[in-house]
């Protein structure tokens, strides 16, 4: 399963939800102190991405402006400036734009058609063609695997933010609300129409910065099918944290589980041996807390640090069967069961064989194993 960078969407909007006005100059929405905060966030990431529309509209430099922050990056063994990234399907990019002539390395993700145009009118950047259409997962995978990007800041515009949020690829939204109005329906909006997650995002922080307010949100909705969303990773991380809360045992694994509705609402959580029950399993404990017949379960996702069991001595029904009986159709796990107690257990295979979408995210395996290290060779 591919691993992506942490994706942070950053934007400032007017009180009526616009990113800019329609005038020739960029509308300054943030306050000076907030521009400095943005500079700090830029200094903390490996790459910054903007859409070709923002290059055309604003002609930004997209730099870390503080010399101290650049020096600190170098002292940490990082490049002085984060990698600058843009996306363009058309490849119609102005080679004289500031983006190409300031800062450090640059990369353009484009289509075959765009790459053809960029061969004729080149820009000072690496050009990566991702096929006939641009696939965001392919782009994120390339940034992580080919360029080592672990944290990506996306600074707009609205077209880009909308796609990343709707495709469940944003880990965090940093939104600044500026106390002014645009009032022009032709001005660009932060988020366009389309299908977003159904429920509420989680509020992480609010911060007053002069006359603007920073709000940080996390999307919460599970992914669809076998495609992981950014929120899937966080829920699985929570399951791994719950595993660490289990009463210790020399004869059973410590596992954590969370059941999450399709709109991102947590339905229940559990961990091994919770509540004084010496043999209860994490998925069993979590599912038992959901009212029978709760209609949200059939579209829910079960996150479990270790794949659901297929055979157990302690109780008649293993967790994979409990999950099927509950009607759950999607399971995300970090760790395939080793042969420690049961040879050849294959909970993922059993569930997939029954049509359940099973997603294994091995980047969480070490966290899932940590509370079980005494049981492993
Ligand atoms: N207030 C803020 O925080 C903030 C931040 C950034 C931008 N802005 C404002 O936002 C406005 C620009 O926003 P925008 O929505 O017009 O432009 P944008 O999101 O910056 O860029 C859109 C362009 O990116 C490329 N693109 C987008 N999705 C793609 C995909 N899936 N595959 C391939 N290419 C893709 C296309 O380029 P091609 O056309 O070349 O194919 C598309 O035209 C400006 O007014 C700017 O001032 C405000």
What is the tally of beta strands?
Answer: 14
Helix vs. strand class: alpha/beta
Please report which band the strand proportion falls in: under 5%, 5-15%, 15-25%, 25-35%, 35-45% or over 45%. 15-25%
Summarize the amount of helix as a percent range.
Answer: 25-40%
Order of helices and strands: EHEHHEHEHEHEHEEEHEEHEHEHEH
Q: Give the overall shape.
A: elongated
For CATH, the homologous superfamily of the largest domain is named as Dihydrofolate Reductase, subunit A
CATH architecture of the largest domain: 3-Layer(aba) Sandwich
How far apart, in Å, are the first and last alpha carbons? 25 Å
SS element count, helices = 12
Low-confidence stretches: none
What is the CATH class of the largest domain? Answer: Alpha Beta
Strand order in the sheet with the most strands: 5-4-3-2-6-1-7-9-8
The major β-sheet equals: 9 strands, mixed
Any idea how many domains?
2
Q: Which small compounds were modeled alongside the protein?
A: NADP nicotinamide-adenine-dinucleotide phosphate
CATH fold-level name of the largest domain: Dihydrofolate Reductase, subunit A
Report mean pLDDT, rounded to a whole number. 96
* Rg (C-alpha, Å): 23 Å
